[in-house]
User: Which sequence fits this backbone?
């Protein structure tokens, strides 16, 4: 009894340390006072002003657009690369997997400076497209590492059986192979989207002066003082992620229940 209580208390303390800063941020988004140390009453003004702030809205739009496009393109390239690597012999596949791991283990600042120097060497103007290409570059390894385990679980006999029954290669892939790979592809897409949404260092070095994402805008505002509208935006993003996770988990539970029957 005491052991279970201590385990639950330990877990509660960990969750408290993890989510206390987010809870404070949510509370501040409803604080009428701009002061972080004084409660001025409940208000929704910061949420109203958030959608009236063109700079924040433009940064949010740019962030979501880059995250979606980079995740989508990286998912397509990463899935194709995974299929190619899966059909290789053991030695070249191992070498390529090692190369794939390097960007993930490498420091973000090294990747950001390297990409910036590459764009400068090619006389490429830093802007939206340079940030997009940079995000695609560091997202591809996450997709590959999400799809590869699913490829190893595939039964090659089902694909070959579909070909023997007269199906074309493309038809057999999309009807037999793709449904089994889809969970890994979706995980890779969501992971890439999250990493792109969260990135600051690489974006900072490759964006130029004309582009601002949420991370770079918050960084520039820290020196002047973060506006309460940012608290409201962070709260909305956090709630969106929670709703998405609940939806995905409920869908997985329903799928497992149906398959169990």
Assistant:
């Amino acid at each position: 009894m005491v052991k279970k209580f201590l385990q639950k208390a330990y877990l509660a303390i960990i969750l408290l340390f993890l989510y206390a800063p987010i809870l404070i941020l949510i509370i501040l988004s409803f604080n009428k006072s701009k002061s972080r140390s004084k409660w001025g009453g409940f208000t929704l003004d910061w949420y109203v002003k958030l959608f009236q702030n063109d700079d924040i809205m433009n940064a949010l739009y740019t962030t979501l657009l880059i995250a979606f496009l980079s995740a989508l393109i990286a998912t397509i390239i990463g899935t194709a690369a995974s299929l190619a690597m899966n059909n290789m012999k053991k030695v070249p596949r191992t070498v390529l997997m090692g190369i794939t791991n390097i960007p993930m283990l490498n420091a973000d600042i090294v990747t950001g400076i390297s990409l910036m120097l590459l764009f400068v060497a090619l006389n490429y103007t830093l802007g939206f497209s340079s940030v997009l290409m940079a995000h695609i570059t560091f997202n591809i390894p996450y997709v590959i590492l999400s799809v590869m385990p699913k490829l190893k679980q595939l039964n090659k006999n089902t694909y070959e059986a579909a070909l023997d029954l007269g199906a074309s290669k493309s038809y057999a892939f999309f009807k037999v192979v793709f449904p089994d790979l889809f969970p890994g592809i979706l995980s890779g897409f969501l992971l890439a989207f999250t990493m792109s949404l969260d990135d600051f260092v690489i974006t900072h070095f490759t964006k130029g002066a004309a582009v601002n994402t949420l991370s770079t805008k918050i960084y520039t505002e820290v020196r002047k003082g973060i506006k309460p509208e940012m608290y409201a935006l962070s709260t909305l993003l956090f709630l969106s992620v929670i709703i998405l996770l609940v939806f995905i988990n409920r869908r997985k539970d329903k799928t497992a229940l149906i398959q169990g029957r």
User: Anything to note?
Assistant: The chain has a mean pLDDT of 85.
